[in-house]
Amino acid sequence: NIPANDKWTQKGVTIAGGHGQDSATNQLDRPLGLFVDDDQTVIIADYSNHRIIGTAQGKILIGDIKCWGLAMDEQRYLYVSDYVKHEVRRYKLGEKNSTLVAGEKEGIVVAGGQETRNALTQLSSPNGIFVDTLGTLYVADTLNDRLMRWTQGDKKQGTVVVGGNG
Fold this sequence. Notes:
Pfam families: NHL. By secondary structure, the chain is mostly beta strands.
């Protein structure tokens, strides 16, 4: 939480990238999502490089993913929306295995996947995501023009919060 009376510096500092568009660990290519954890590590969804990179570690945290949105829950699980696979995955930082929290192909389904359609079990190019203090996952289901909600433990289908095709 940022106090309302905090002041910001007028001069920005590059904390990631800034060395041209490419795939070295000091370069980014279309960074689309970011999250700052409690340790002030900036976690970046480096979309065109298909990876999640962390600034404090200076290394690739997760590879081989078309990442877009990022969120973190109270237990420090990182949630990543995959725009191409139409799913949201959950990762414990420092571990390579993931849990599918919105999708179907691997792991435990919590939201979406299967194929790109508009059923309550599916997502179509998920973008922004948010996890509240109760573990409820909210997903901007971009190509279905809706906001979906998955309550913790509900692996079958989500609920349309707003929008949709009917």
